[in-house]
Amino acid sequence: MLYVAMCHDKPGSLDVRLATREAHVGWLKGLGSRVRIAGPFFDEAGEAMCGSVVVIEAESLAEAKATFAADPYAAAGLFAEVEIRPWRWVVGAPTA
Questions:
Q1: Amino acid 65: pLDDT
Q2: What are 51's strand-pairing partners?
Q3: Residue 72, CB half-sphere, CA atoms under 13 Å: how many?
């Protein structure tokens, strides 16, 4: 099943995001084909990163939570809030 993580950065934490970005991207790449889509949110002006959306494949919600807990951004304390939910890709889904 697919799981989506909606991650919202703590206010004023862009420096933490930038300092941890290389490790975060390496972590994502290390997940290989389990990652279906990933990228940052931006502020309303479209200028500064302020959160992330990551969709992964996992066997269970517990596995998805454990996977997202290993994100270097999470370890650095970047996020104010993270919501992880089962998700089904319906429209525009890529071919397998």
A1: 97
A2: 8, 41
A3: 16
